[in-house]
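Homework help board

Subject: predicted structure for assignment chain

Our instructor gave us this sequence and asked us to write out the predicted structure in token form, then describe one feature. I got the tokens but I'm not sure how to describe them. Can anyone check?
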Amino acid sequence: MADTGIITLLLIVANIIFSYRGLTSPSFFEAYEFEVDKVLLNRDYKRLVTSGFLHVGWTHLIFNMLSLYFFSSIELYLGWLPFLLVYFASLAGGNLFALFIHKRHGSYSSVGASGAVCGIIFASITLNPGQGIGFFFIPVSIPGWVYGLMFVLFSIYGIRSKRDNIGHEAHLGGALIGMAIAILIKPSSLVYNYLPILAVAVPSIIFIYIIISRPHVLLIDNFFFKKNKKYYNADQKYNVEKNNIQQEVDRILEKIHQKGMNSLSKKEKEILKQYSKERR
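My token output:
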């Protein structure tokens, strides 16, 4: 049984409560999930964090919470405040990395604590790379740094191929953030564990450099991208939406001028009311 701190238990409870609310209330789920257009166009940045407390199902939730529990001893090693720093920085960092990769895929959405949990796991690997990491129902384990390298390579493959609907971007981003913060908190880990750390970090850094300098390597036919489909960046989408709203408001105002306020439908009144609030 893992040595578990109170903060880990509180995070698990919070995830269960908010996930249950999201699973039973679609409107609640949609209000707090991570979605590219909602973040970039609506400037709804809270979703970078709130999405980490929602899950698509009980299996998703249980797997993440068990993973967090198994690596929760790092809370007692680092202390509760650094532990929280790793958790939330990895959560937000993972979603920011996903946002960067999918900035042209407005409908891309994701939820789950995986980015935060990966940050905790990789912080543990950084501080103790030789620790054994086992798999469910398999009575063998591998060194933590070997698991880290396999995880990074699989995430890179997943991001590049998009053969599944797993948020590899948030996993990889969260893992690297967790590793970086662990090094900042315990700089001696870089001195004593530099070889396994480099084994995990180097391929990740190379991949990130490639997608920054040559972003077209990700533009392949998959669920979120078609070569012949035209994409707009966030500013272009914002301007298009703003122009469409303005045209609709102008039409409503012209209708009022010709037929009076009573001629408006309920929806038209709501559009005009919302537009007035935004113009204040």
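Reply (TA_rk): Your tokens look well-formed. For the description, you could write something like this. The CA atoms of residues 149 and 199 lie 7 Å apart. That's the kind of observation they're looking for.
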